[in-house]
Design brief:
By secondary structure, the protein is α/β, with parallel strands linked by helices. It has 16 helices and 5 strands. The chain is 59% helix and 7% strand.
Length: 360
């Protein structure tokens, strides 16, 4: 492959200077020299590409050396521009330094100065090109690594969500009447969070918290969970411990703090009559107030041996009616007004998958 030599473009409207420069550089073997007396045509040549250094006079008819410098810097700031100046061009020199001129050649200049300046400018150009290639490579590398990391993070999240599903299934096996309850509560909670315009990160936390909200029941004997008669006070006390038990299980897992809050507070009531701590109003975490609505709605609409279930419409009315008592009034209202959208995922498996996929 033939290696193209660097090209130096010299611009001056004075043909005699151009001839002088060409003659001075004619023995230079490492680069080629092109001379142009029309600055506009010279600029067109620069825009065609392949120029490594520009040497330009300052005072020329249509375009000045400063115009050329500005245009070259905007086009490709790796190309060094050398300006040929007179002794009275101080203002021009000040402006061109500001614009990023590479070097000045003061008239009358020595041939040796011209040769050294051109060689240095070409070296600078080569370095700048190498540097920008290196930076581009680095940028691509960073982008690739970031994509790989994101992929690994997504894989890890999927894997630990799968583990969570296994834990939830293990818990629900214990309780015949709540099979699928955690999945439905998750779908309703995420649907509600979506209607409330929560961020993807928030939806992700709601999702995990809702899935695990009853995890503490894993420690409650199945004969208590499945009892057909009404519970004794002590049995009810055992059940009431499941939020604290659940939070204790997840605390060492390094999950977001909100997950533990959801588990711990999903049976708290807005008016302070819930358990385990009797927290009130906004002392209950917002996500727990959302899961509380979803949890109660699913409980009301699920069949139990000891009672019949409510249809969706009646259950939604119950939520609305209990605003300010059991439920956060605002969340109860939003749930009621958007119930069709929020609940559509329960009857549409694909929509549910999409919703949960988004909340990954
Ligand atoms: Fe619960």
């Amino acid at each position: 492959m033939k290696i193209q030599k660097p090209r130096v473009l010299v611009i001056d409207d004075d043909i005699s200077i151009l001839d002088c420069v060409r003659l001075s550089l004619k023995n230079e073997k490492d680069y080629t020299v092109t001379t142009m007396h029309d600055p506009e045509q010279a600029l067109e040549m620069i825009y065609e590409g392949g120029i490594s250094t520009v040497i330009s006079d300052v005072k020329m008819g249509k375009l000045s050396g400063l115009d050329i410098l500005k245009a070259v810097r905007e086009y490709d700031d790796r190309i060094p521009v050398v300006l040929i100046t007179g002794s009275s061009d101080e203002e021009v020199m000040r402006k061109s330094i500001h614009l990023g001129v590479y070097e000045f050649l003061k008239k009358p200049f020595e041939i040796s100065d011209l040769i050294v300046t051109v060689r240095q400018a070409l070296e600078a150009h080569q370095l700048r090109v190498q540097n920008s290639k290196y930076k581009d490579k680095l940028k691509t590398l960073v982008l690739e690594r970031t994509a790989e990391l994101m992929e690994t993070k997504a894989k890890l999240e999927r894997s630990y969500l799968n583990t969570i599903h296994v834990m939830v299934n293990a818990m629900e096996v214990n309780d015949t009447y709540t099979l699928g309850h955690s999945e439905r509560v998750t779908a309703i909670s995420v649907g509600l969070g979506k209607v409330m315009d929560f961020s993807l990160e928030d939806l992700r936390e709601i999702r995990i918290g809702a899935l695990l909200h009853d995890l503490g029941k894993i420690g409650v004997m199945s004969n208590v969970l499945n009892k057909e008669q009404s519970l004794t006070d002590s049995e009810y006390d055992i059940i009431k411990r499941h939020p604290i038990a659940g939070a204790k299980i997840v605390d060492p897992m390094g999950l977001p703090k909100t997950v533990s809050k959801i588990i711990l507070q999903h049976h708290e009531w807005y008016n302070g009559e819930g358990y385990p701590y009797g927290l009130k109003g906004e002392d209950i975490h917002l996500f727990a107030r959302i899961v509380s609505v979803a949890d109660s709605f699913d409980a009301m609409t699920s069949k139990r041996k000891y009672r019949s279930n409510l249809d969706y419409g009646r259950a939604a009315q119950e939520i609305y009616r209990n605003r300010g008592q059991q439920f956060d009034p605002e969340i109860g209202r939003i749930f009621y007004e958007n119930r069709q959208q929020v609940l559509s995922v329960l009857t549409n498996k694909i929509a549910l998958d999409d919703l949960l996929e988004e909340a990954y």
